[in-house]
Amino acid sequence: MKIEALYPELCNLFGDAMNAEYLHRAVPNAEFLKTSLKDSPAFLNGDVDIVYMGSMTENGQSIAAGLLMPFRERIIELVDAGKVFLITGNALELFGNSIENEDGSFFETLGLFDLYSKRQMMRRYSSIYLGSFDGTGFSGESAGEMDIVGFKSQFSFLYDDVGGVGAPALFHTKRGAGRMPGQVEEGVRLNNFFGTSMLGPLLLINPPFTRYLLGLLGARGSELPYEPEAMTAYEARVREFKDPKTGAEYG
């Protein structure tokens, strides 16, 4: 197995990088590629099993968009073919149509789906997140529905582009914000492209979802690092986030 983590110099916020590291620890004989800003992505040759990208600064978004734009058609080809992508935090915004600043200026992004991002830099939104995931795979296999927990802290939200067809959601929101506050749909799923605005080590705190991804990657029987502890923490967090006494938003 080959795991490719894109642009670690940029995508190094909120502990998101642990997602790729956790997959590597689950499959220690996998080849773990860290593609720097000066390197050509390994996915261009089609010989990686999963491409990962996580949170970055707003300036980092413009840099990463410029680097990825020449590979747009290849990325679309891979997503259509069912290649696994895991995209977290504001990296997801790079795969919509554009990112808009508060002054109305914007820059184009990869355009895999008809959503755009709009920044509100003076208003950070922070919340817990509780949702569900329908574990039906690209090829029709199913792992059943599962709870998803996590955290959000963001200056921007995703909106349907005028006249576009939007995009199928990754998660169904129960508490917290979806693509924007009040919206049930969270993130984007296109075949085996999994994109969410949640931050941090999503895979470590959601062992059932990690097992689902490993199954897609042909490593269904792999032992998760710290699995008993991770499952105990996951189950406790699900109970906590389902408790109406637990506040959803925080300052």
Can you offer a commentary on this structure?
It is a single chain. By secondary structure, this protein is an alpha/beta fold. It has a domain at 2-121 and 159-171 and 186-225: 3-Layer(aba) Sandwich (Rossmann fold). It contains six helices and 14 strands. It has helices spanning 18-26, 58-68, 72-81, 202-205, 207-216, 227-242, and strands at residues 2-6, 31-35, 50-53, 84-88, 98-100, 106-108, 115-119, 125-136, 142-154, 156-160, 171-175, 185-186, 188-190, 193-196. Strands 2-1-3-4-14-13 form a six-stranded mixed beta sheet. Strands 6-5-7-10 form a four-stranded mixed beta sheet, with no helix packed on it. Strand 8 and strand 9 (142-154) form a beta hairpin. It is globular. The N and C termini lie far apart (41 Å). The model has no long low-confidence stretch (mean pLDDT 93).
The poorly predicted ranges are none
Helix content estimate: 10-25%
CATH-derived topology of the domain at 2-121 and 159-171 and 186-225: Rossmann fold
How would you state the average pLDDT, rounded? Answer: 93
Q: H/E series, N to C?
A: EHEEHHEEEEEEEEEEEHHH
What sort of overall outline do the alpha carbons produce when their principal axes are compared? globular
User: What topology, given as strand order, has the largest sheet?
Assistant: 2-1-3-4-14-13
Distance between the termini: 41 Å
Care to count the β-strands?
14
What is the quaternary state of this protein?
single chain
Largest sheet composition: 6 strands, mixed
User: What is the level 1 CATH name of the domain at 2-121 and 159-171 and 186-225?
Assistant: Alpha Beta
